[in-house]
Amino acid sequence: MFRNIGEIMILFWQTLNALPLSWRHRRKIADQLFEIGNASLLMVCILSLFIGGVVALQTGPVLVERGLSYVLGGMIGLSVCKELAPVMMSILIAGRVGSAMSAELGSMRVYQEIDALRTMNISPITYLVLPRMVAIALALPMLVLFAIPVGWMGGALVASLNNKIGVDFGSFFSDLRDVVEVADIWNGVIKSLVFALAIGAISCHQGLITRGGPRGIGRSVTKAVVNSIVVILILDYFLTRFLLLVQK
Amino acid sequence: MKSAPPQVQNVTVEVRGLRRSFGDGPVLDGIDFKVEAGEIFVIMGPSGSGKTVLLKHLIGLETPDEGEILIQGEPIDAPGLRDKYRMAMVFQSSALLTSLTVGENVGLYLKEHQLLPPREIAAVVADKLKTVGLAGLENRYPNELSGGMEKRVAIARALVIEPQLILYDEPTSELDPVMAVAIGEEIHKLKDRLHATSIVVTHDRDLAFGIADRIAMIMNGKILFVGAPEQLKKHPDPKIQNFIFAELLIRRYHGNERIP
């Protein structure tokens, strides 16, 4: 495990060093961006809408019962933008994009395509890892920025349509505006950027160390997704503590 | 646009005391030989004898447990060596990038190292594909080609580099005899045209005796012989004789008795 962590850190560092070459690889980055953004946007909308809705459904009746219906908008607003949108979207992207990255690189490794690149003095880091890392680091925060208002909308819809809650759109968003600040949205975006880098580094590393044919590729994909999700949840705790400290 | 490296044709390759183990036993057990500049050096041996692992060490894809590999007197892992000497390898599986077209595969080296503008790359690609008899196939994908065609695309991709050292891993495996002869002729023509040092790993005896300036015989991770093809045929070691003269028809009609 420690060896893997070390290798991931080295891969991340090498990718950072290759960052000035991003402009040269802009077409590959654009392709990856399209792949991540286009394929995930609908899923992000659906997931986010229902997350906001479920939070409203679970908490709304309890708050209304205690005469606290006026805090519903702010509570859902904060929980969606600071926690639910970045974490859930990152888990979605780890499953959708991280798996694809590790499968693609794993297959290239098993079928010697990466060896072929090395023999041509083409670095797999700049040719394969850099465009994927840059693309996911741009795409995931953008998706989260998109997911936040959709999640709020889901919460507001359930709050207004559910007869046990009955908080109208106006009251919901008025409370949300009072509580949620731009810094809270940035909080979610920063978290998603860190999660994106973790997903990219873990998935690319897992792909690059794949061994043993189709079964090995399958194993790599599973490991990439599971490890990414575990790391997202662990990082979330520490990032939350750090960002709470900074926000004070 | 970068300028191409200086045109130093062909390099020497020296292997000293190379050892490599995987798991229980050694795969390469103290390999020593020197490949002279510009020659076709064939490494021949039965399946599982360590040929491909040796070849991967020669181009720096594997790191030895012990020993060293010198390219023109410099260690293979020396910084900047790959910028100094142009090296290419034709893989047994061809190892074409399946997400790229044939043209993109062949022009990849020039494009990624920014050696030529796109229009000139297209011209070079067309020329190299013509050289290997695949003119006009630029827009096909590797999975639309036969095994022989894939191999020739891999050779075209290596040619684009204008290598000073070119390594071939089982270039005739999975090919019919006619195609195998064509690939052998191609390797010979390339040597004449580029004057590159060529190292060919194979168990195809026809290919080995047809193209080699010198042959190294490897068995169980050890080099048993290095020398001219004619000397190898006369070598008294029964293991070498068994490998060189293994013929199904001879065995069926004469048992293990050698035909004079």
Order of helices and strands of chain A: HHHHHHHH
Give Rg of chain A in angstroms: 20 Å
What is the C-alpha radius of gyration of chain B, as a whole number of Å?
19 Å
List segments of chain A where confidence is low: pLDDT < 50 over at least 5 consecutive residues: none
Could you explain how this protein is built, in words?
The complex is a heterodimer of chains A (248) and B (260). Chain A has helices spanning 2-17, 26-65, 72-110, 113-119, 124-161, 169-179, 182-208, 213-247. Chain A is mainly α and 248 residues long. The two termini of chain A are 35 Å apart. The mean pLDDT of chain A is 92. Chain B is globular. Chain B has a six-stranded mixed sheet, sandwiched between helices. A four-stranded antiparallel sheet of chain B has the order 2-1-4-5, covered by helices on one side. In chain B, helix 3 packs across helix 4 (118-131) and helix 4 (118-131) packs across helix 5. The model of chain B is unreliable at 1-6 (pLDDT under 50). By secondary structure, chain B is of the alpha/beta class. Chains A and B meet through helix 4 of A and strand 6 and helix 3 of B.
In short:
Chain A has 248 residues and is mainly alpha-helical. Helices cover 86% and strands 0% of the residues of chain A.
